[in-house]
Write a structure and sequence with these properties.
Blueprint (H helix, E strand, L loop, with lengths): L1 H9 L5 H20 L4 H10 L4 H25 L5 H24 L2 H16 L6 H7 L10 H16 L4 H12 L4 H25 L5 H20 L6 H21 L3
Helix pairs in contact: 2-11, 3-4, 4-10, 4-11, 5-8, 5-10, 6-12, 8-9, 8-10, 9-10
Length: 264
Protein backbone atom coordinates (compact mmCIF):
# COMPACT_ATOMS: atom_id res chain seq x y z
CA UNK A 1 0.00 0.00 0.00
CA UNK A 2 2.84 2.35 0.83
CA UNK A 3 4.42 1.74 -2.59
CA UNK A 4 1.09 2.45 -4.30
CA UNK A 5 0.73 5.70 -2.35
CA UNK A 6 4.27 6.76 -3.30
CA UNK A 7 3.59 5.99 -6.97
CA UNK A 8 0.34 7.96 -7.01
CA UNK A 9 1.77 10.95 -5.19
CA UNK A 10 5.02 11.15 -7.18
CA UNK A 11 3.98 10.20 -10.73
CA UNK A 12 2.87 13.08 -13.02
CA UNK A 13 -0.55 12.82 -14.65
CA UNK A 14 0.98 12.72 -18.16
CA UNK A 15 2.87 9.51 -17.40
CA UNK A 16 1.29 6.74 -19.57
CA UNK A 17 0.90 4.52 -16.52
CA UNK A 18 -0.99 7.24 -14.67
CA UNK A 19 -3.20 7.96 -17.69
CA UNK A 20 -4.14 4.26 -17.93
CA UNK A 21 -4.80 4.12 -14.18
CA UNK A 22 -6.98 7.25 -14.22
CA UNK A 23 -9.06 5.97 -17.13
CA UNK A 24 -9.40 2.49 -15.61
CA UNK A 25 -10.47 3.74 -12.18
CA UNK A 26 -12.72 6.33 -13.85
CA UNK A 27 -14.47 3.57 -15.81
CA UNK A 28 -14.98 1.50 -12.66
CA UNK A 29 -16.41 4.49 -10.80
CA UNK A 30 -18.62 5.44 -13.75
CA UNK A 31 -20.01 1.92 -13.92
CA UNK A 32 -20.79 1.66 -10.20
CA UNK A 33 -22.23 5.19 -10.01
CA UNK A 34 -24.70 4.23 -12.73
CA UNK A 35 -25.86 0.90 -11.32
CA UNK A 36 -25.47 1.49 -7.58
CA UNK A 37 -24.09 4.88 -6.56
CA UNK A 38 -21.67 6.32 -3.99
CA UNK A 39 -18.59 5.33 -6.01
CA UNK A 40 -17.47 8.97 -6.23
CA UNK A 41 -15.86 8.36 -2.86
CA UNK A 42 -13.37 6.19 -4.75
CA UNK A 43 -12.52 9.23 -6.87
CA UNK A 44 -11.93 11.27 -3.73
CA UNK A 45 -9.65 8.56 -2.37
CA UNK A 46 -7.57 8.35 -5.54
CA UNK A 47 -7.18 12.10 -5.91
CA UNK A 48 -6.33 12.61 -2.25
CA UNK A 49 -3.63 9.93 -2.40
CA UNK A 50 -2.30 11.78 -5.45
CA UNK A 51 -1.84 14.78 -3.16
CA UNK A 52 -5.01 16.81 -3.68
CA UNK A 53 -6.82 18.30 -0.68
CA UNK A 54 -10.41 17.09 -0.36
CA UNK A 55 -11.90 20.30 -1.79
CA UNK A 56 -9.80 19.96 -4.97
CA UNK A 57 -10.60 16.24 -5.18
CA UNK A 58 -14.31 17.06 -4.82
CA UNK A 59 -14.22 19.71 -7.53
CA UNK A 60 -12.05 17.70 -9.94
CA UNK A 61 -14.40 14.71 -9.85
CA UNK A 62 -17.33 16.79 -11.10
CA UNK A 63 -16.07 17.08 -14.70
CA UNK A 64 -16.31 13.33 -15.24
CA UNK A 65 -19.67 13.27 -13.46
CA UNK A 66 -21.12 15.81 -15.91
CA UNK A 67 -19.87 14.03 -19.03
CA UNK A 68 -20.79 10.57 -17.76
CA UNK A 69 -24.36 11.43 -16.81
CA UNK A 70 -24.86 13.41 -20.02
CA UNK A 71 -24.10 10.24 -21.99
CA UNK A 72 -26.27 8.18 -19.63
CA UNK A 73 -29.21 10.57 -20.05
CA UNK A 74 -29.11 10.21 -23.83
CA UNK A 75 -29.21 6.43 -23.50
CA UNK A 76 -32.11 6.45 -21.03
CA UNK A 77 -33.99 8.93 -23.25
CA UNK A 78 -33.42 6.78 -26.34
CA UNK A 79 -34.81 3.75 -24.50
CA UNK A 80 -37.93 5.70 -23.51
CA UNK A 81 -37.22 5.61 -19.78
CA UNK A 82 -36.50 9.29 -19.16
CA UNK A 83 -39.35 11.71 -18.46
CA UNK A 84 -37.49 14.89 -19.41
CA UNK A 85 -40.22 17.21 -18.15
CA UNK A 86 -40.42 15.61 -14.71
CA UNK A 87 -36.64 15.27 -14.43
CA UNK A 88 -36.26 18.95 -15.25
CA UNK A 89 -38.73 19.86 -12.50
CA UNK A 90 -36.61 17.82 -10.10
CA UNK A 91 -33.32 19.15 -11.45
CA UNK A 92 -34.13 22.84 -11.07
CA UNK A 93 -34.52 22.90 -7.24
CA UNK A 94 -31.56 20.51 -6.96
CA UNK A 95 -29.46 22.95 -9.02
CA UNK A 96 -30.51 25.90 -6.87
CA UNK A 97 -29.57 23.97 -3.75
CA UNK A 98 -26.27 22.93 -5.34
CA UNK A 99 -25.35 26.60 -5.70
CA UNK A 100 -25.29 26.95 -1.91
CA UNK A 101 -23.75 23.54 -1.27
CA UNK A 102 -20.90 24.06 -3.73
CA UNK A 103 -20.12 27.49 -2.27
CA UNK A 104 -19.87 25.95 1.19
CA UNK A 105 -17.57 23.22 -0.12
CA UNK A 106 -15.42 25.85 -1.84
CA UNK A 107 -14.94 28.15 1.16
CA UNK A 108 -15.04 25.82 4.18
CA UNK A 109 -11.76 24.70 5.71
CA UNK A 110 -10.66 21.30 4.42
CA UNK A 111 -10.78 19.76 7.90
CA UNK A 112 -14.45 20.75 8.25
CA UNK A 113 -15.23 19.23 4.84
CA UNK A 114 -13.42 16.04 5.83
CA UNK A 115 -15.35 15.69 9.11
CA UNK A 116 -18.75 16.39 7.53
CA UNK A 117 -18.03 14.03 4.63
CA UNK A 118 -16.73 11.34 6.97
CA UNK A 119 -19.95 11.48 8.99
CA UNK A 120 -22.45 11.72 6.12
CA UNK A 121 -21.07 9.07 3.76
CA UNK A 122 -21.79 6.06 6.01
CA UNK A 123 -25.32 7.35 6.60
CA UNK A 124 -25.97 7.69 2.87
CA UNK A 125 -24.36 4.29 2.26
CA UNK A 126 -27.10 2.66 4.32
CA UNK A 127 -29.54 3.48 1.49
CA UNK A 128 -27.71 0.96 -0.72
CA UNK A 129 -29.13 -1.88 1.36
CA UNK A 130 -32.74 -0.74 1.39
CA UNK A 131 -35.05 -2.74 -0.86
CA UNK A 132 -36.25 0.19 -2.94
CA UNK A 133 -39.23 -1.63 -4.45
CA UNK A 134 -40.61 -2.83 -1.11
CA UNK A 135 -39.88 0.52 0.49
CA UNK A 136 -41.78 2.43 -2.19
CA UNK A 137 -44.77 0.08 -1.92
CA UNK A 138 -44.90 0.48 1.86
CA UNK A 139 -44.36 4.25 2.01
CA UNK A 140 -46.42 5.56 -0.86
CA UNK A 141 -46.78 9.35 -0.88
CA UNK A 142 -49.94 10.86 -2.34
CA UNK A 143 -49.70 13.23 -5.28
CA UNK A 144 -47.86 11.00 -7.71
CA UNK A 145 -45.58 12.72 -10.20
CA UNK A 146 -47.03 16.15 -9.49
CA UNK A 147 -44.56 18.52 -7.86
CA UNK A 148 -45.60 20.63 -4.88
CA UNK A 149 -43.91 23.34 -2.74
CA UNK A 150 -42.93 20.74 -0.15
CA UNK A 151 -41.39 18.49 -2.80
CA UNK A 152 -39.46 21.41 -4.27
CA UNK A 153 -38.03 22.14 -0.82
CA UNK A 154 -37.04 18.49 -0.35
CA UNK A 155 -35.18 18.39 -3.66
CA UNK A 156 -33.60 21.77 -2.86
CA UNK A 157 -32.16 20.24 0.33
CA UNK A 158 -30.91 17.26 -1.65
CA UNK A 159 -29.26 19.76 -3.99
CA UNK A 160 -27.45 21.45 -1.13
CA UNK A 161 -25.94 18.09 -0.26
CA UNK A 162 -25.11 17.41 -3.92
CA UNK A 163 -23.36 20.73 -4.30
CA UNK A 164 -21.31 20.02 -1.19
CA UNK A 165 -20.36 16.48 -2.26
CA UNK A 166 -21.57 14.40 -5.19
CA UNK A 167 -21.04 11.10 -3.37
CA UNK A 168 -24.47 9.69 -2.56
CA UNK A 169 -26.72 12.31 -4.15
CA UNK A 170 -27.80 9.80 -6.80
CA UNK A 171 -29.30 7.57 -4.12
CA UNK A 172 -31.08 10.56 -2.57
CA UNK A 173 -32.59 11.56 -5.92
CA UNK A 174 -33.69 7.98 -6.59
CA UNK A 175 -35.34 7.67 -3.19
CA UNK A 176 -36.91 11.10 -3.54
CA UNK A 177 -38.30 10.21 -6.96
CA UNK A 178 -40.03 6.99 -6.00
CA UNK A 179 -41.15 8.11 -2.54
CA UNK A 180 -42.44 11.57 -3.45
CA UNK A 181 -43.12 11.21 -7.18
CA UNK A 182 -44.34 7.61 -7.37
CA UNK A 183 -41.70 6.52 -9.89
CA UNK A 184 -40.43 2.95 -10.14
CA UNK A 185 -36.73 2.20 -9.66
CA UNK A 186 -35.82 2.26 -13.35
CA UNK A 187 -37.52 5.59 -14.06
CA UNK A 188 -36.16 7.04 -10.81
CA UNK A 189 -32.68 6.12 -11.97
CA UNK A 190 -33.34 7.88 -15.27
CA UNK A 191 -34.42 11.00 -13.39
CA UNK A 192 -31.17 10.80 -11.43
CA UNK A 193 -29.19 10.91 -14.67
CA UNK A 194 -30.72 14.14 -16.03
CA UNK A 195 -30.93 15.78 -12.60
CA UNK A 196 -27.18 15.32 -12.27
CA UNK A 197 -26.66 16.90 -15.70
CA UNK A 198 -28.75 19.92 -14.65
CA UNK A 199 -27.14 20.60 -11.28
CA UNK A 200 -23.49 19.68 -11.91
CA UNK A 201 -22.65 22.71 -14.14
CA UNK A 202 -23.73 24.97 -11.27
CA UNK A 203 -21.29 23.29 -8.91
CA UNK A 204 -18.55 23.30 -11.57
CA UNK A 205 -18.89 27.04 -12.11
CA UNK A 206 -18.54 27.70 -8.38
CA UNK A 207 -15.48 25.45 -8.10
CA UNK A 208 -13.94 26.96 -11.26
CA UNK A 209 -14.37 30.49 -9.89
CA UNK A 210 -12.46 29.42 -6.79
CA UNK A 211 -9.77 27.75 -8.94
CA UNK A 212 -10.29 24.33 -7.37
CA UNK A 213 -10.45 22.08 -10.46
CA UNK A 214 -7.40 20.13 -11.62
CA UNK A 215 -8.43 20.22 -15.29
CA UNK A 216 -5.83 17.85 -16.82
CA UNK A 217 -6.59 15.09 -14.32
CA UNK A 218 -10.32 15.80 -14.53
CA UNK A 219 -10.45 15.41 -18.31
CA UNK A 220 -8.37 12.21 -18.39
CA UNK A 221 -10.46 10.72 -15.60
CA UNK A 222 -13.67 11.75 -17.39
CA UNK A 223 -12.82 9.49 -20.33
CA UNK A 224 -13.07 6.49 -18.02
CA UNK A 225 -16.21 7.83 -16.35
CA UNK A 226 -18.03 8.04 -19.67
CA UNK A 227 -16.91 4.58 -20.79
CA UNK A 228 -18.02 2.97 -17.53
CA UNK A 229 -21.30 4.85 -17.46
CA UNK A 230 -22.23 3.91 -21.03
CA UNK A 231 -21.54 0.22 -20.41
CA UNK A 232 -23.52 0.28 -17.15
CA UNK A 233 -26.46 2.04 -18.81
CA UNK A 234 -26.75 -0.71 -21.41
CA UNK A 235 -26.09 -3.73 -19.22
CA UNK A 236 -28.21 -4.95 -16.30
CA UNK A 237 -26.06 -6.98 -13.94
CA UNK A 238 -28.29 -8.16 -11.10
CA UNK A 239 -25.93 -10.91 -10.06
CA UNK A 240 -23.23 -8.36 -9.26
CA UNK A 241 -25.34 -5.83 -7.37
CA UNK A 242 -24.64 -7.28 -3.92
CA UNK A 243 -20.90 -7.38 -4.57
CA UNK A 244 -20.93 -3.80 -5.85
CA UNK A 245 -22.81 -2.58 -2.79
CA UNK A 246 -20.44 -4.31 -0.40
CA UNK A 247 -17.40 -2.98 -2.27
CA UNK A 248 -18.67 0.61 -2.23
CA UNK A 249 -19.63 0.45 1.43
CA UNK A 250 -16.19 -0.96 2.28
CA UNK A 251 -14.51 1.96 0.53
CA UNK A 252 -16.89 4.42 2.20
CA UNK A 253 -16.05 2.94 5.60
CA UNK A 254 -12.31 3.17 5.03
CA UNK A 255 -12.41 6.72 3.69
CA UNK A 256 -14.79 7.93 6.41
CA UNK A 257 -12.58 6.43 9.11
CA UNK A 258 -9.49 8.02 7.55
CA UNK A 259 -11.11 11.47 7.25
CA UNK A 260 -12.24 11.42 10.88
CA UNK A 261 -9.11 9.76 12.27
CA UNK A 262 -6.73 12.33 10.74
CA UNK A 263 -8.47 15.10 12.71
CA UNK A 264 -7.08 13.73 16.00
Amino acid sequence: MEQIAVFLSSTPYWDPRMIILLIAVGAFVGFINTVAGLATVISYSLFMIMGMPINIANATSRVGVLLQFSANSLIFKKEGLLDVKLATKVGIPVAVGALFGAEMAAVFRTDIIEVVTGILLPLIAMLLFVDKKKFSEKYHIAGGAKMSPVKYVIFFIIGVYGGFTHAGIGLLVIFGSFIFLGQDLLHSNAIKQLTTVIYTPVALIIFAIHGQINWPVALIYAVGNVLGGVVASKVAIKWGEKFIKISVVAVVGIVSFYLLWKQF
